[in-house]
Amino acid sequence: MMKKRSALFMFSLMMAFSLSAVGFDVNNPWKTADEILEQISDPVFPDRDFLLTRHGGKVGPRHDNTRAINRLIDRASRAGGGRVIIPAGEFYTGPITLKSNVNLHLEEGAVLKFSNNPSDYKPFVRTRWEGLDVINYRPLIYADGETNIAVTGKGKLDGQADNDSWWWMKGRENFGWIEGMSSQYQTGRPKLMEMAENNVPVAQRVMTEEDLLRPQFISPINCTNVLIEGVTIVRAPFWVIHPVFCNNVTIRGVSIISHGPNNDGCNPESCKNVLIEECLFDTGDDCIAIKSGRNNDGRNTPIPSENIIVRNCRMKAGHGGVVMGSEISAGVRNVFVENCEMDSPRLRRVIRIKSNTVRGGFVENLYVRNVNVGQCDEAIFRVELKYEQRDGDGPFMPVIKNVELRNVTSQRSRYGVYIEGRDESIQVSNVRFIDCHFNNVQAPVRITGAKDVVFENFNTTIEEVKRDR
User: Fold this and answer.
1) Partner residues linked to 455 by β-bridges
2) Which residues contact 226 (CB under 8 A, 6 or more apart)?
3) b/e code 363-400 from CB counts within 10 Å (16+ = b)
4) Which domain holds residue 113?
């Protein structure tokens, strides 16, 4: 059940979101980006270290370090904070809960191997699952209502997910599911969707192991001053980094290499002042997907994701490089992407916006510059306002406006610009492509349901030989 402290924190956070807005300069949007960066800072920790091996931690698969790590985090937080250090070696653990003023630091050569036994991730906690509020599996690394928290270092976080554990729950044969087994589509997902549609209180949306809703890897909720830096993350059960209702978040120098189902790299949801920089994404789903709640849950808690900077990142495989959606019912605004490299035949799209008239929401003030694309499979820029039409039709028309791509180059893709709006109500507007050069495309531009789309110094070359698909 959600604690009163968390509810009060949620109210305070909503107030902070509404009172500390950045004024947007439409004539010089990148000046706004500079102002956002001035509001983002790393948390500062006391110069105090707590070494795991001096407090009961032991290497090797025979030793479960869950209790030792969490007790040491509690001790460090009660002492006023500091670093909890994981030294070189393989340490096996269950879920870890971060506390205020604690930096979980993995030294070079350190590996935290997380249990892949679902029973170890109890008791269930308040989180969000695909944009819906829920009481579900405890994420592998979790925090609720904490201030000044971090996961840093040159070590590795290994979720040990595979086709025999976690991934099969998706219900796909290529991830280990076999005919006759249950899956999330048969159990927890429709159950949670119905609860959200009926506005069932979150405290009553309690899942079970049989519901098969996999946990996130790192998910702070209702937290302020969050840093994740330097670590490598592999084999995630579900979404990899998923901050929810957080303010002042920095993701820096992280390598995410995880190709399971729904292995999105970083999904800030209803967060404000977020910096994602110098990261490597090689993922089984979107590299970065910015979200703000789904359907009623997003509209009933109308906290958008806003003031988000993505820079100097490298994207390899993934469904999309930087994506807005598909759960954006509370909206996304003020997103800046610059100086990124994206290149892989397994990268589906570069910049993508996706929603429908059931989810609704808005995306406004999206600015992209100096992005170099080797190749992607589908489109450099893609808007889908008929995404997942199995949801049906609803009254919540998505609105997309004020989008600019400047100095974006690519060497190969199926489409250059592919905008699929809604013909019955033109809600995609003021989209500009300036100094963009897309080579070896099969269809340079395909646009429906949009207005005020401008091309300045926009060049494409046509691929003469159709690639095998």
Assistant:
1) 433
2) 43, 143, 149, 150, 220, 243, 246, 248, 249, 250
3) bbbbbbbebebbbbbbbbbbbbbbbeeebeeeebbbbb
4) 1-7+40-221
**Could you confirm whether 423 is annotated as catalytic?**
no
**E strand or H helix at 66:** helix 66-78
CATH number at residue 154: 2.160.20.10
- Which pLDDT belongs to residue 19? 37
β-bridge partners, 241:
218, 266
**Pick the catalytic residue: 282, 285, 286, 297?**
285
From start to end of 23-137, where are the E strands?
A: 49-51, 82-86, 89-93, 96-97, 102-106, 110-114, 125-129, 132-136
The single residue listed with the structure tokens 């920790």 is: 45
What is the rounded CA–CA span in Å between residue 150 and residue 228? Answer: 6
Do 452 and 430 form a contact (C-beta atoms < 8 A)? Answer: yes
- H helix and E strand count, the chain: 5, 32
Instruction: Kindly state whether residue 52 falls inside one of the protein's structural domains.
Output: yes
For 320, the token pair is: 């999309």
Task: State pLDDT tens for residues 270-322.
Answer: 999 999 999 999 999 999 999 999 999 999 999 999 999 999 999 999 999 99
| Residue 326 CB coordination number (10 Å) | 24
The domain total for the chain is: 1
430 in a structural domain: no
Cα distance between residue 358 and residue 387, in whole Å: 10
Give residue for tokens 């759960």.
327
Q: What three-state secondary structure class fits 357?
A: coil
pTM for the full model?
A: 0.94
What SS3 state is found at 35?
helix
Is residue 120 part of the annotated active site? The answer reads: no
| Integer Rg of the chain from CA | 22
323 occurs within a structural domain: no
Is there a contact between 340 and 312 (Cβ–Cβ < 8 Å)?
yes
Measured from the Cβ of residue 337, the count of other Cβ atoms closer than 10 Å reads: 25
- Contact in structure between 250 and 224 (CB atoms under 8 Å): no
Gap between the Cα atoms of 212 and 168, Å rounded: 9
| The two structure tokens encoding residue 377 | 């499979």
Which candidate, 203, 115, 102, places its Cα nearest to that of 159? Answer: 115
* DSSP state for residue 321 in the 8-state scheme: S
Nearest to 142 by CA among 239, 48, 212, 64: 239
Residue whose entry in the numeric block shows the structure tokens 């395909």? 446
Cβ contacts of 195 within 8 Å, gap of 6 or more: 132, 204, 205
Cα(292)–Cα(324) distance, integer angstroms? 9
Looking at residue 325, its amino acid is: G
Residue 147 lies in a domain: yes
- Residue tagged active-site, from 319, 377, 393, 423: 319
Q: Is the pLDDT of residue 397 over 80?
A: yes
The average pLDDT across 417-438 equals 95
How far is the C-alpha of 63 from the C-alpha of 254, rounded, in Å? 27
